[in-house]
């Protein structure tokens, strides 16, 4: 696993964060050290997929990056007549995900990877859709339409798995959680320079929302039984169901 040192040296002209080849090469280390609870959220996404996948249906991993959630789904899926589709707009990520899939010993359901903008891809006949740490990178004005499209493309009884960085509507609580999150990154070996430069690069690229905003969006799209099943610091995961 290559170590993330993208922001270790002072950069006079910081560019906006992009998921290019450089990020792809260190992404596994980056998310491990930057996203508290990432491994648990990904592993449990696979467990949930195994529980809710319907025979002959599609399962989607939207914003699949290296394919970690895709592979977790595949590991826990009993139905071999399902198809798992990983979609990401970074060709570098898609290429790496394909290689990870080839290296996996799991057999069973078909796995496909597509390089595309998830806002434009058709979601159809889906029983499980995971969108882990991805909606936060979609422009806020496009988020309602994306969740509504996901809902429309799901089978009755299907589930959406959503994981996001969140902010608190209470300024004091938000400040406390942000402080703890920075301690998490320091504990994982990131320097003050790395933390500061990455935050600047992500400004206006990663735009988090409150839990209330996510709940409202899911509810207005038609989802029911919306449950937060995991939280670690300011990162949360929910499951939402489409009525039968």
Automatic annotation (TrEMBL):
Keyword Glycoprotein: no
EC numbers: 2.1.3.-
GO MF, any single term: methyltransferase activity
Enzyme class: transferase
Ranges for domain Methyltransferase: 61-158
Annotated signal sequence range: none
GO-annotated biological processes: methylation; tRNA wobble uridine modification
Reaction catalyzed: prephenate + S-adenosyl-L-methionine = carboxy-S-adenosyl-L-methionine + 3-phenylpyruvate + H2O
Tagged with keyword Membrane: no
InterPro entries: CmoA (IPR005271), Methyltransf_25 (IPR041698), SAM-dependent_MTases_sf (IPR029063)
Assembly and oligomerization: Homodimer.
Function: Catalyzes the conversion of S-adenosyl-L-methionine (SAM) to carboxy-S-adenosyl-L-methionine (Cx-SAM).
Family: Belongs to the class I-like SAM-binding methyltransferase superfamily. Cx-SAM synthase family.
Protein name in UniProt: Carboxy-S-adenosyl-L-methionine synthase
Taxonomic lineage from the root: Bacteria, Pseudomonadati, Pseudomonadota, Gammaproteobacteria, sulfur-oxidizing symbionts
């Amino acid at each position: 696993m290559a170590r993330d040192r993208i922001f270790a040296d002072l950069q006079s002209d910081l560019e906006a964060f992009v998921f290019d080849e450089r990020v792809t090469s260190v992404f596994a280390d980056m998310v491990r050290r930057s996203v508290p609870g990432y491994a648990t959220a990904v592993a449990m996404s696979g467990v949930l997929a195994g529980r809710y996948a319907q025979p002959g249906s599609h399962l989607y991993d939207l914003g699949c990056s290296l394919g970690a959630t895709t592979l977790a789904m595949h590991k826990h899926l009993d139905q071999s007549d399902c198809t798992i589709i990983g979609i990401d707009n970074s060709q570098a990520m898609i290429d790496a995900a394909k290689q990870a899939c080839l290296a996996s010993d799991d057999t069973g359901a078909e796995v496909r990877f597509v390089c595309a903008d998830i806002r434009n891809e058709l979601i159809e006949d889906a029983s499980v859709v995971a969108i882990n740490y991805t909606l936060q990178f979609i422009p806020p004005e496009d988020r309602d339409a994306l969740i509504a499209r996901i809902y429309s493309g799901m089978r009755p009884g299907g589930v959406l798995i959503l994981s996001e960085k969140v902010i608190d509507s209470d300024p004091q609580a938000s400040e406390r959680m942000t402080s703890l999150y920075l301690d998490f990154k320091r504990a994982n070996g990131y320097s003050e320079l790395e933390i500061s430069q990455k935050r600047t690069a992500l400004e206006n690229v990663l735009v988090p929302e409150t839990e209330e905003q996510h709940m409202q969006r899911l509810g207005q799209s038609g989802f029911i039984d919306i449950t937060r099943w995991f939280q670690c610091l300011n990162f949360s995961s929910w499951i939402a169901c489409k009525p039968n």
